[in-house]
Amino acid sequence: MKLGFVTDSGSDIDPDYAEKIGVKVVPLSITFSDADDVVHLEDKNFDLDSYYDKYNTVDDFSAKTAQPTPNDFFIAYEELAKEGVKEIIVVTLSSGLSGTINSARLGANMLKRKNKNVKVHLVDSLNASYSEVLLVEEGMNLQKQGLEAEEIAIKLGEQAKNIKTYILFPSLKYLRKGGRISITKYFLGTLLRKRPITVVNQEGQNEVATSVTDTDEGIHKILELASENFTRFPKQVVIIHGNNLDYAGRMKKQLKKHFKKAKITTRCTGVTISAHTGPNVIALISYF
Question: Which domains does the chain have, with CATH numbers?
Answer without folding.
Answer: 3-161 (3.40.50.10170), 163-287 (3.30.1180.10)
